[in-house]
What we know:
Helices cover 23% and strands 27% of the residues. By secondary structure, it is of the alpha+beta class. The longest helix is centred in the first third of the chain and has 22 residues, at 100-121. Belongs to the TPA1 family. It catalyses: [ribosomal protein uS12]-L-proline + 2-oxoglutarate + O2 = [ribosomal protein uS12]-(3S)-3-hydroxy-L-proline + succinate + CO2.
Amino acid sequence: MPAISPINQNFMALNPEIISEDTIARIRDLYLQPSDGDSHDDHFQIVHSPFKALKFKDFYKDADSLRELTEEVEKLTFYDKQNDLYNLKQSEDLTDSENEVISKFVSTLRKDVGQSLSRIMEVSFNDNFTLTASRYAAKDVLLCHDDKCVDRCVAFVLYLTGTGEEKGGAFEMFGKDGNGQPTTVVKSLPAVANSFLCFEVGNFTYHQVSEVIDPTFERLSLNGWFHSDREISLLDYADPRPPVQQQVPNEDGLLFDECVSPMYLLPATVSQACAKFEGDSQIEFLNFLRPNMYKKCLEELKTLTDWTPRGPANRRHYSVMENVQEPNLKKLFESLASPQCVSFLKQVTGLSLVPKSPDVEESSEFSIELQKWAPGDYTMATDNDEYFLHNGLDFFLWFGSEEAELDHETGGNIVYLSTDEDDDDEDDRYLLGIDPQDNALHLVYRTDMTVRFTKYINHTAKSPYYCIAATYYERDED
């Protein structure tokens, strides 16, 4: 490409106030000493809690250098990146970029900045280095994670845009619970152009990029990692299986029939459903509940207030109702716990579910939740969790999704993926997508080679919606 001309000695020069010997020594002393609060001056900020992070407020000496770099980054090709963790646009790796301006930035990072960070944090970097550019427009987000991967040592981001006043796009830091798992956001650092933020990657460096709300703001940055040969002892944690419940017979055995639309109890309908499920391993029943039952349950759901948040944030974020006492919802839950419900599910799926009866020694168990979903909610495909190690029939019944005005841009859809290691391509791992629909029951057979996630619900959802989510386990499950 044609050379940038003229290049003077100040071109892309770092702010001398952040690389001077005196400043580096002062930052090092402040960074290494324990503190509950932040340390800062006009040129830097050190965050000590919930984990250590260092921010240089004025990275480049002059505005022209940042402008030149920003213009070159904006010319790059960006690719859509979407999965359970993020929704954004990203460039290819820029470590060996032939662009003169970007190459100069890489050289400055690896030499001047890398040496300074090595001294401040008392770490040694190896020859590996990673750099990409990221664009976050409205509705884009990067959810809670810790950045641990192979030999990553220090993560960094140089903000090319942002005044700090925009809604969204902030670097948000999470606290942790007694198991070392992320809880809630306890610190938020807005994106400000020409600021450089970095932190040592560790077991508890839980963070996210908050959803961009401002439709006029595009968060543009250069980000990556310095790598090292150090070893981090991995956190030994597996999310426990949800509480398992036993079937509860009701006196007259008619509770389930009173809730469900009569057409789904007809032998012909059951037979057709079983044939479809046998071929697809999933099926949807529209208008599953009797209309009056659905209406009353939705009305009761809207009155509930004591919802409990479900985490940890690196796996899920939504709310549940622990103790359902409203009359129609309670009746519905009791019907779903009944042997009649298990019998229905057995008939329409052909799975080896076992209804409870006096003649049966071991009947099928199940897990169930009443969930509330709203903007900011999601689940992730954490295939190392105990829940996904058990085959089961997943059960979803939705309420109020039409009022939320959900679509694929809004989120809330459930995605099933294969965990087969032979499926290298992400598209090959995709198995099924489910969109919430009012009064629709969706059944999916999930094996231990399958995981699922609920796509992040962004701010465009008009209102909360609700779901009864359950899993019925086959008898041979441990």
